[in-house]
Write a structure and sequence with these properties.
- The protein folds into 2 domains: 192 residues, Growth Hormone, Chain: A (Up-down Bundle), CATH 1.20.1250.20; 199 residues, Growth Hormone, Chain: A (Up-down Bundle), CATH 1.20.1250.
- By secondary structure, it is mainly α.
- The chain contains 15 helices and no strands.
Length: 391
């Protein structure tokens, strides 16, 4: 397939990914800072974060399914983008903690809904307009890293309010771009799935095995996301080096996506690409258990290209092949709700119990999840041979 930059449809898809990920690239690292600046305690910020993961499960299951049911993926995202921007602006007038919680959860619900539906549109655009999906999605990661670095610098120079206004602008950009998203035209005209059919898909045994494989391999990152920076600080690494290590992981993901990722995933096939993320997780989290502080951290962080990106591409390929196109957003939402929601939250809860006692050995949770995920990939390979699921 050709580069997404060579066609109008590819460039439009790339621009949408970049604008949306420029929201999440600020929301994930800097929204807790905004909440703390508003006046929340550390414990309250933690509670808001935990509840945010919970809303990700609910919104990820229901809103994308609704978009499929209404046969209106682009409009659903546009509404979520507009609501997200308006709710963020409304934060400026909030004076009570319960109201702040509702508003923050509503913002998180918008983000959790846009992601899966946007992936369904991106995959559809790639398939029907003949450009490579992986590089287009890679530009989303570029947008994520750019906004992370840019807003971090702007916050240092001005105030944390920059984060809010940056997200408002990027929400509106994404909302405008999605209205003419090239992935939305080809799903129109198909029979919208009934609620019973969506339920049949989500409860399909093969789809369930796929979701389990994706959930364990992707949620194996939980310990790193929750305690990576804290543990490196305890080991004596400087803030500058920690920042560079995080950037190296994202850079490896981007390089993989925009170069060989798509071709490698196509050669391996969906199941083996998912399995590759499990194998890489065994190496990465097993290595992190030894508390490395020297040069070995760099190749361990470079494995993010495989622990995350290879698994993500495998998941997109599975959904493209196994799930009828009219169920695309519902399938994406169910997978994300489990992998980036429920299972991730449970893994983080386990890490919170283990880390105070075992420190770096807590990465054993990620190692165990990668082993389990790899085993489930083997099972998936036996249960699914490339056929479209009967729903």
């Amino acid at each position: 397939m050709s580069s997404p930059l060579r066609s109008a449809a590819g460039r439009h898809t790339t621009a949408f990914y970049a604008s949306f990920f420029m929201v999440s690239g600020v929301y994930m690292p800097f929204w807790p800072l905004w909440l703390a600046d508003w006046g929340l305690t550390t414990a309250e910020v933690g509670l808001f974060t935990a509840l945010g993961i919970g809303i990700r499960v609910v919104a990820g299951l229901f809103i994308p399914a609704l978009a499929d049911r209404l046969d209106s993926r682009r409009n659903t995202i546009a509404v979520c983008c507009l609501l997200g921007a308006l709710i963020l602006v409304a934060h400026l007038w909030i004076t009570r903690v319960p109201v702040l919680l509702v508003a923050t959860l509503a913002t998180g619900a918008c983000l959790a809904s846009i992601g899966p539906i946007g992936e369904a549109l991106g995959v559809a655009a790639s398939r029907f307009h003949g450009f490579a999906y992986a590089p287009a999605r890679g530009f989303g990661s570029i947008g994520f890293m750019f906004s992370n670095l840019a807003v971090g610098a702007l916050i240092s120079a001005y105030s944390v309010q920059v984060a809010l206004w940056w997200m408002v602008v990027c929400f509106l950009m994404a909302g405008l771009l999605v209205l003419r998203h090239p992935g939305g035209t080809r799903v129109q005209g198909q029979t919208p799935p009934r609620a019973s059919e969506i339920r049949e898909l989500i409860t399909n045994p093969v789809f369930g095995v796929f979701v389990a494989a994706l959930s364990f391999t992707q949620a194996s990152h939980a310990v790193f996301y929750a305690y990576g920076t804290i543990h490196w600080t305890a080991l004596g690494l400087s803030e500058a080096r920690i920042g560079a290590l995080w950037a190296a992981g994202v850079a490896a993901e981007i390089a993989f996506m925009v170069t060989i990722g798509g071709a490698l995933a196509a050669r391996l096939g969906p199941v083996r690409a998912l399995g590759l993320s499990g194998v890489a997780g065994i190496l990465r989290w097993g290595g992190m258990m030894f508390d490395p502080t020297g040069w070995t951290l760099w190749p361990l962080m470079a494995l993010h290209a495989f622990t995350f990106a290879a698994g993500h591409l495998g998941a997109m390929a599975f959904i493209t092949r196994a799930v009828p196109a009219r169920f695309g957003a519902a399938a994406q939402g169910a997978a994300a709700a489990m992998a980036a929601g429920l299972v991730l939250a449970l893994a983080m809860a386990a890490a919170a119990l283990v880390y105070p006692r075992l420190g770096g050995l807590t990465y054993g949770i990620g190692l165990a999840m990668s082993v389990i995920g790899l085993g489930i990939c083997v099972l998936l390979g036996r249960r699914w041979t490339g056929q479209q699921l009967a729903v």
